[in-house]
Design goal:
There is one protein chain. It contains 12 helices and 5 strands. By secondary structure, it is mainly α. The chain has 2 domains: 212 residues, 3-Layer(aba) Sandwich (Rossmann fold), CATH 3.40.50; 92 residues, Orthogonal Bundle (Tyrosyl-Transfer RNA Synthetase). The strands form 2 sheets. The chain has a 3-stranded parallel sheet with strand order 1-2-3. The protein has a two-stranded parallel sheet with strand order 4-5. Helix 8 runs antiparallel to helix 11. The structure holds adenosine-5'-diphosphate (ADP). Adenosine-5'-diphosphate (ADP) binds next to helix 1.
C-alpha cells in the first residue's frame, strides 16, 4: 500500500477556542485525517514566547486537548509538544543553520515584539519570540512532514523552514530533510461580529470572539448584537463586511439551504437582518451544543483521556527520536544510548 503523505499542524494553548479557530483551522484538521498521516500538536513551548502564567499554561494545554478531541481530532494523531522535548533539541541545531537576518525580517516578529512592549509594559521582548520560527521549523522537519496547512500569514515562516532545511541538507551533503510544502485548503476567514473589519480573535478581547463551547444564550446575544451596516457605507452595491461575515458563518456551518435562500432575499432587497442573524445563531448554537456534549463526555473520563494523550505523545516521540538520532549522526554530534 502506498504510504500516506504526512501533514503537520499545531496550535498554541493560549485560551478559549473560538469559531474563527474552528472554521479557519481545526475543522480542516478533522477533514485532513481522512487522507493523510496527520500529526497535530498542542505547542506549549511556543506559548512561552509571550508573557504568560505557568499554572495557566498547563491548564490551557489540557483544555485545548479536550477541545480538539471534542471537535473530532483523533487522539492517536495528537500530542503535547513539551512531552516531545526533541523539538527543542532540534530547534537548537537548526538555529545554527538559520540566518539571523532572516529571523529579524519576519513580519510576525515585528508585530509581536511591538505588542510585547505594549502588553508587558516593560518592553521585554524574549529571544524566544525571535526564535519562534525555528522552533516551528523543528516541529515540521522532525516528522519529515510533506505538507503544512497554513494561511497566508504563515507562508513566510514555512519559507524559512525550507531555507533552514536546505542549508542543513547542503552542509551534510544529503537530501535529509523533506522540504515541506504549504497545503492551501480553502478555509473561511472569520471576522469579529463586534467589529467586522478585524478578524475574530482572542487577543482583541471577549466581544471579538465567539467561544466554540459557549452557552446558547451567550451565542444568541453576540449574534443579535452583530454589526451589520455601519451606516457609513457608500451605496456602491457591495455587501457590508458585517453582513458578508454572517453569510460566511452560515456557509461554514453548512447551512447551505438557509444561506442560499437568505442570499436570494438579500439580492432581491428584501432581506431582514433579524432573519439572517437568527439563522446564524441557530447554526452556531447547534454546533456548539454538539461540541459541548462531546466535551462533557470526555471530561467525565478525564484520567483515561489524559493517559491516552500521554501515550500518543510517547508514540509520536518515538518518531521524533529516530529523526534526532539521524540528525546527530549527520551533524557530527555524539549518539550514545544510555
Ligand atoms: P487567535 O488570533 O484567537 O489568538 P490563533 O492565532 O491561536 O488565534 O489561531 C489558531 C488557528 O486558528 C490558526 O491556524 C489561525 O489561522 C486560525 N484562526 C484564528 N483566527 C481566525 C479567524 N478569525 N478566521 C479564520 N481562522 C482563524
Amino acid at each position: 500500500m502506498e504510504q500516506r503523505k504526512k501533514v503537520l499542524s499545531a496550535i498554541q494553548p493560549t485560551g478559549d477556542m473560538h469559531f474563527g479557530n474552528y472554521f479557519g483551522a481545526v475543522k480542516n484538521w478533522v477533514a485532513l485525517q481522512e487522507r493523510y498521516d496527520c500529526i497535530y500538536g498542542v505547542v506549549d513551548y511556543h506559548a512561552m514566547t509571550m508573557p504568560y502564567q505557568p499554572k495557566k499554561l498547563r491548564e490551557n494545554t489540557w483544555e485545548l486537548i479536550f477541545n480538539l478531541l471534542a471537535t473530532g481530532v483523533r487522539p492517536d494523531f495528537l500530542f503535547i509538544q513539551s512531552l516531545v522535548p526533541e523539538h527543542a533539541e532540534l530547534c537548537w541545531i537548526l538555529n545554527c543553520f538559520t540566518s539571523y537576518g532572516q529571523l529579524m525580517r519576519m513580519t510576525q516578529f515585528k508585530d509581536k515584539s511591538r505588542q510585547a512592549g505594549e502588553l508587558g509594559g516593560d518592553g521585554f521582548i524574549s529571544a524566544g519570540l525571535l526564535d519562534y520560527p525555528v522552533l516551528q521549523a523543528a516541529d515540521i522537519l522532525i516528522y519529515r512532514a510533506d505538507y503544512v496547512p497554513v494561511g497566508k500569514d504563515q507562508e513566510q515562516h514555512l519559507e524559512l523552514a525550507r531555507d533552514t532545511a536546505q542549508r542543513f541538507n547542503s552542509q551534510v551533503r544529503k537530501e535529509y530533510f523533506v522540504l515541506p510544502e504549504a497545503l492551501f485548503t480553502e478555509v473561511p476567514k472569520v471576522a469579529s461580529t463586534a467589529d467586522p473589519t478585524r478578524k475574530m480573535s482572542k487577543s482583541a478581547g471577549e466581544k471579538h470572539y465567539i467561544n466554540l463551547f459557549a452557552e446558547e444564550g451567550r451565542i444568541r446575544k453576540q449574534i443579535r448584537s452583530a454589526v451589520t451596516d455601519t451606516g457609513a457605507e457608500s451605496d456602491n452595491g457591495e455587501m457590508s463586511p458585517g453582513v458578508a461575515n454572517l453569510f460566511r458563518l452560515l456557509k461554514a456551518s453548512e447551512r447551505l439551504e438557509a444561506h442560499d435562500s437568505l442570499l436570494a432575499d438579500y439580492e432581491a432587497g428584501s432581506l431582514k437582518y433579524v432573519d439572517l442573524k437568527e439563522a446564524v445563531a441557530d447554526a452556531l448554537v447547534a454546533i456548539s451544543g454538539e461540541m459541548r456534549e462531546r466535551k462533557a463526555e470526555l471530561l467525565a473520563d478525564k484520567k483515561r483521556v489524559k493517559d491516552q494523550i500521554k501515550a500518543s505523545s510517547a508514540a509520536i516521540r518515538k518518531r521524533a527520536q529516530q529523526t534526532m538520532r539521524e540528525v546527530k549522526e549527520l551533524s557530527g554530534l555524539l549518539n550514545v544510548r544510555f
